[in-house]
Structure formats: structure tokens, C-alpha cells
Design brief:
The structure is a single chain. This protein starts with a helix and ends with a helix. The protein has helices at residues 3-35, 38-61, 68-79, 82-94, 103-126, 129-141, 150-191, 203-223, 235-253, 264-276, 283-299, 309-316, 320-331, 335-353, 359-365, 371-381. It is elongated and about 85 Å long. It contains 16 helices and no strands. The longest helix is centred in the middle third of the chain and has 42 residues, at 150-191. The protein has 385 residues and is mainly alpha-helical.
Length: 385
């Protein structure tokens, strides 16, 4: 391979996350124009921050040292902004009172990166041209301490403080991100039998991506960007971040249902039941559950597509809270699980009686409006014997 080809390959590898983020930004903006919803606005803002971050990466890895003081200042700010911005997006989807409605948190989210940029940028400005070049060559590209005094040492301290702060942000965002997603999906499962277009899609994948992104960020943060300079090892984080970024954006774009699509009183009831559910069924709960079983077996209400908890509660002449409590204490199930177990039992009976019947027809006759939802629930709830 010629020297030119090697150089071009290196440039393409190091700039891959930037171009992926630009493509995903264009897709997200197009989606925002169609939907005009608040979560998408935060997702677009997050992608802009990510694209800016990776643009600075590209400058750094390709040794454009004349503008590194500028791009490094921007990089420090964006590095401290991307994770809080993503958590802000998650909170818009899952939380009735998201981060955007908490001024103090917003000041912290945007104020900390701004402060870091002012301190790092101001120190670069205060340095002489020789000091800037020495710091960039020694600390940023070679990864060792150049000086024990003066502005160069101050700049080293500032960068170290930003690395530590970033690591702390990852832990905080992981905790609150997991909590908000789990709580949101738990509410959905309590209220709806068909959660396919409501739950945050591919929740295991999203949590896994969250973890992988955080671990990869932490590893790169600890090793330092200098570890990857002028080495094809950079291909691993470049490709990894590109895939994770594209997946996170795609999951965000396909997520339409938010907490604001659930009436406030219904959410309150599910949360109350989740924290104060009766573990031992009372006579009232047992009686209500028995009535539920009778109606389900006689009328096969579970075969109605997109059946809601509220519909079943009205049919029983009770309210959502008592029905949730009866399901929790007597069946130890969410509403989603209860309905889908009934549907899959019905599907198994259809298969046994009509072995040549197409699966698409079985899915429809069992209350499902999509084959993918049928197969997923069939694998979860079918009889194992």
C-alpha cells in the first residue's frame, strides 16, 4: 500500500464517527420537521454536540496543530455536554417533569461545559505560542507531563479535572437513564397489553448500548486520545462509536410514544400500585381476580386488539387501581403479561386443532396486529412441555 493510500485510510478512519454523526443528524432533522415534538429537539441537539465533538477529534487525529487550541477547547466542552444532553432526551420521553423543566439542572448541564471552555480556552490564550505548542506536542499527543509550573501545568490540571468530571457524569447518567427507562416501561406494561409501539423499543439493546458506550468512553478517557494517535488501533473506537451512535439515534427516531401520551392519573395509579402492592391477596382482590378470570374465559376479551387496562376495569365494574392490585397479588403479573399469556394459550390451542393454519392467521385470531409481536410473545409465554 502506498504512503498516500495509508494516509487516506487513516483520515477516513479517524473521521468516520464525524461523518456518521452528520448523516444521522440529517435524518434526525428531517424527522423533527415532520414530528415537531420536544424529545426530538433534544435528540437533535445531542447529535449536534456529538458531531462537534467528533469534528474536533478529526482535527486532533490528523495533526492540524494550528487550530488544536480552538478545537481542544470545544472538545473539552462537548465532552462534558454529550452525556447530560442524552439523559435530558431520555427524561423527555420517560419523565413527567423532565430535566428541561428544571432550571437548576439545565444551568448545571450547560454551565459546566461553558466554564470548562472558558478556563481551558482562557489558559490557551494566556499562553505564549511556544507554550501552546509545547503543551500540545507533549501532553495532548505524547501523553506525558511537560512542566511542573506555570500555565502549562495549569492546563494539564484543567484537562485532568475534565476527565474526572466526565467519568462522574457517565456514572450519574447511567443510573438515572436506567431508572427512567425501567420506570417508563413498567408503567406501559401495567396499562397496555400491546406495548410494541409504546415501550421504549429494544430496551435490552438500548441498555446494552448505553453500557457499551459508557465503557468505551471511559476506556478512551483513561487511555487518552494520545494512545490512538498515528495508529490503526484508532479504528476500534472509531467504528465502535459510529455503530453505537447510529443505533442510539435510530432508536430515538423510531420512539414515538412518550410519558405525555399516558393520562397523569393512570401513571400515578401504576406507580402507587408498584410501591404498595399487596403481596398477599385480600378477599376483595381474590374475588375481583376470580371475576376477571370468568369474564376472560367466557367472553375471550383478551382477543381484542390493543385492549387497555381501563377497558377491562370498566368491564369488571371496578377501577384501574383495584384491578392492578388484584393482578399483582393474585397472579403476580403485569396487565401486559396476563393478557399475552391468555392470547398465547389461545394460539397454542389453535395450532393444535389446526396444524396447517398459517401463522399470520393464528396471530390475528389470537389478538395480535403484527406477526413480530406474536412471535415475540409466543417465545416468551408458550407452554414448555
Amino acid at each position: 500500500m502506498t504512503t498516500f493510500a495509508i494516509a487516506m485510510t487513516y483520515i477516513l478512519i479517524t473521521s468516520l464517527p464525524f461523518w456518521v454523526s452528520i448523516v444521522m443528524l440529517a435524518i434526525a432533522v428531517k424527522t423533527l420537521v415532520k414530528r415537531h415534538d420536544k424529545p426530538m429537539r433534544w435528540l437533535v441537539l445531542w447529535i449536534i454536540a456529538v458531531a462537534t465533538l467528533y469534528g474536533c477529534h478529526t482535527v486532533y487525529f490528523n495533526h492540524i496543530t494550528s487550530i488544536v487550541p480552538i478545537t481542544d477547547t470545544i472538545y473539552v466542552a462537548m465532552n462534558l455536554l454529550v452525556y447530560p444532553l442524552y439523559q435530558t432526551y431520555i427524561s423527555e420521553v420517560t419523565n413527567r417533569r423532565p430535566v428541561s423543566l428544571r432550571p437548576k439542572l439545565l444551568y448545571l448541564i450547560f454551565g459546566l461545559p461553558a466554564l470548562a471552555a472558558v478556563l481551558v480556552g482562557g489558559t490557551y490564550i494566556a499562553m505564549t505560542a511556544g507554550q501552546r505548542l509545547d503543551f500540545i506536542n507533549a501532553n495532548l499527543y505524547n501523553g506525558y507531563t511537560y512542566s511542573t509550573t506555570g500555565l502549562i501545568l495549569l492546563q494539564e490540571w484543567l484537562h485532568t479535572a475534565c476527565h474526572i468530571t466526565f467519568a462522574g457524569q457517565v456514572i450519574i447518567v447511567l443510573y438515572f437513564g436506567f431508572r427512567d427507562i425501567r420506570r417508563f416501561n413498567s408503567t406501559i406494561r401495567q396499562l397496555y397489553a400491546d406495548t410494541e409501539h409504546r415501550e421504549i423499543k429494544y430496551i435490552p439493546a438500548l441498555l446494552l448500548i448505553f453500557i457499551l458506550t459508557s465503557l468505551l468512553s471511559a476506556v478512551v478517557n483513561v487511555l487518552g486520545r494520545d494512545f490512538f494517535v498515528d495508529s490503526y488501533v484508532v479504528a476500534f473506537p472509531a467504528v465502535g462509536f459510529s455503530i453505537l451512535l447510529a443505533t442510539l439515534v435510530w432508536l430515538g427516531i423510531t420512539q414515538h410514544f412518550t410519558i405525555h401520551d399516558i393520562p397523569q392519573e393512570q401513571e400515578d395509579e401504576t406507580q402507587q400500585d408498584d410501591t404498595k402492592a399487596e403481596r398477599v391477596p385480600t378477599a376483595q382482590s381474590a374475588q375481583l381476580y376470580a371475576k376477571l378470570e370468568d369474564i376472560m374465559n367466557e367472553q375471550q376479551t383478551y382477543l381484542q386488539q390493543d385492549i387497555l387496562l381501563n377497558d377491562v376495569a370498566k368491564l369488571l365494574g371496578t377501577n384501574r387501581t383495584y384491578l392492578l392490585r388484584a393482578l399483582s397479588s393474585c397472579a403476580h403479573m403485569t396487565f401486559k403479561e396476563y393478557i399475552n399469556r391468555k392470547r398465547i394459550a389461545h394460539a397454542e390451542q389453535l395450532i393444535a386443532n389446526n396444524p396447517t393454519m398459517p401463522k399470520s392467521e393464528i396471530a390475528t385470531l389470537s389478538g395480535y396486529n403484527s406477526q413480530s409481536s406474536f412471535y415475540r410473545n409466543y417465545n416468551l409465554y408458550r407452554s414448555k412441555n
